[in-house]
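Listing 4. Sequential folding, example run.
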Amino acid sequence: MSPAVKYTLARLVLFLAVFAALWFVPNLSLLLKLMIAILVSAAASWFLLRNLRDDVTAQVESAVDRRKAEKDRLRAALAGEDEVPADAGEVHKTQA
């Protein structure tokens, strides 16, 4: 399963758990319970879901690096260069 899907499902489960806990609190409107659940689950996910968030970040970073390398390879091929550098994507990493 994709790290992004895992993170999204974990955020949803965390929200539902907080909302379920608030369901039994009397004298609060449904809208207020939803708003509190959103805020509390967002704050809790910042601390509890750090590893999943890091996995998503690594996945996105990897995809960006692959796309940059492919773009550099295609530009070099279109420019008529005989040899396309094998580390075309690595140029961006060392400059950043």
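-- end of first protein; second protein begins --
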Amino acid sequence: MRETIRLSVILMVICAITGAALAVTYAQTRPIIEEREAQALQENLKALLPGADNFEAQGEGEDKVFYRGYKGQQEMGVVALFNQGGYGGDIRMMLGVDKGGKITGLRILEHSETPGLGARITEDWFISQFVDKNVNDPLAIGQDLDGITGATISSRSVAGGVKLVAGEIKNQFLGAGGPGIDFSRVPDGTYQGEGQGFGGKTRVEVEVKGGRLVEVRVVEHHDTAGVSDVAIDRIPKKMVEEQRVDVDTVSGATFSSQGIIEAVTNALQEFAAPAGGGGADLGSIPDGTYTGTGMGFGGPLEVEVTVAGGKITAIKILSHNDSPGVSDAAIAKMPEKIIEAQQVEVDVVTGATFTSRGIIDAVTDALAGAK
């Protein structure tokens, strides 16, 4: 028994000494590691947005961060750090876009794709295809980008991730955001809407009277007290003062700001003007049936759009190559959404983003051809 106790005490002492040594080592090396990581980040940011000499993080999160780049006080563009699901797991990427919407660079930072196949997404010939493209371009494998033979999923994952994030940069930072609200078209009343804040749903009440926005009340939110307070106080006041919804976010409370903006937009969605880049003047389109193509996740997607009396009356998916089960929800719901809204730029179906965007692009293509 005494021998057992003695050995136990010795083992405890050894563990304590080892733990203390590891703690000391970690404390000494962690600042060095963080400094190197920060240095590598700055090098990547400057390489992806040439000309910018300082950067400001916007909307920091675990999976996606945007960095606004400046040269002195002049804004040069945006760099996004984000994850996109690939064949073998998440692909960590950085994308640079200048103020004109041109892609200035793309880097693959981490991936788990198959060696010799999907791992070729890091090769210069593949990455360089994205440079000088515009955020409005298709950015689709088989359309304006070449894929990697034998690594279809990896190729499309990178292209799809770039397309989605380029769209977010366009909407959030390049002044080409979602539909504007014409308050003169909004009947007097109080409207409710929801948006996504940092901690969950943000709910608002919006009061309009005499063609003007008179009050925005945040009635529910789940964001961190002390951090979100400034956004909850300022964003509604900004909207009323400027008589517009897409006001500048509050620094340090970007997610909360965006949640309020999204909620007010949601409340007044039916009075929104058609979105930039995807709107179509349906009244100018002759009655008829038109076909168009877009790029889904698995390849080209073709639709048939019927217009009668200045309205979209039917949308039929003629062909697609997207995965059954995954794409089904988008195939079923997107035509209904577009017909109901009578505009092309509707919200995508969660879990079927690529297919949703493919349908939107195909309908846009059909209507463009009609005009």
